[in-house]
Amino acid sequence: METDVLGMPYERHTIELGSDDEGPVVATLVRRRAATPSRRAVLHVHGFVDYFFQTHMADFFVERGWDFYALDLRKYGRSLLPHQTPNFARSMRDYFPELDEAARIIREQDGHDQLLVTGHSTGGLITSLWAHTRRGRGLIDGLFLNSPFFDFNLPWVVRRPLMSVVLAVTGRQPYRKMPVANLGLYGRSLHSEHDGEWNYDLTWKPITGFPVTMGWLEAIRQGQLKLRSGLSIDAPVLVACSTRTFRGRQWHDDVRVSDSVLDVDHITRWAPGLGRRVTIAQFDGGMHDLTLSGKEVRAEVFRELGRWVDAFLPAPGAPDVEIPPAPEDQAGKTAALRAAEATVESRTADEADDKSDATA
Fold this sequence. Notes:
alpha/beta; nine-stranded mixed sheet; 11 strands; globular
């Protein structure tokens, strides 16, 4: 570990991932320890055109006694190298090696018994697929998905038949760029130099985003097809999103109180198919990254997250929930109690008779 760009107490570790057709590949694991030694850890995974800078989220967890980790995926943020196409991937499975290594470091090297994984937007799609693939290993104990990217925010005819045709035609040109409009609205709503309240590195998270490539689109499409067919994540999942989707093409103040990137109806539609224990929470006034919403909304987001964590990921050693006896058990217990009472009464009567005989 070395000191991160955020400065202490943030540290970072570079994960070497070999090479692909563009050259060497790395990912970056950022760490912040809790004030006292902890066996509980959080691993955060960012979205598209994103990287970890949300230190207030780390504050929330370390103040609750969790060690906090964040992973800048290959070709994102701290991990983006000069020779690489920003944010490019050929498959969502490309990210599994760094997730595996991050989990190994957290559990085996740093000695944590409990792991909560959080994923935002594209990170929510990636971590869902990874958690499904790694089920049965006891690798993660919970999954928090913040506005996960389960479907494209486009009309049906575009996101289904038209996209399939376009990607089939351009399949041999994965680095070909596709023009995308309105990405700047969301960036403008976030950064303090525009209409937002957050300050972050615009080299790693530009206001208008990075160009979308055909290879990335196909990787997302295939990942979403897999997710929508149904997953079997064996850890409890909390899926959170806004209550509103912004569909305008020009700036409006509503951008700051709605999801201006994804359709929230898609999120709530596909969330139940993630596994058997899925909780859905929607927040009025929430932005695409709920943790970057207005002060009152993000406070409610963190309160809800805290309640969910306490319920589904209790601290090791916490007392089990008391379960009332089943009716049949209660009936058996009552019968046994009555029999015991009858026995006591009989013995008492016998003792009384013995005393009476002795007196006589």
